[in-house]
Amino acid sequence: METTLSTSEAADILFNDKNANWSYNGSIALVEHLEGYEESPGEELKFDYVAIRCDFSEYASLQEWAHNYFGEEYIDALAIDITSSYDAMRDKIRDYINDHGELIEFDGGVIVSSF
Question: What range does the domain containing 17 cover?
Answer without folding.
Answer: 7-113
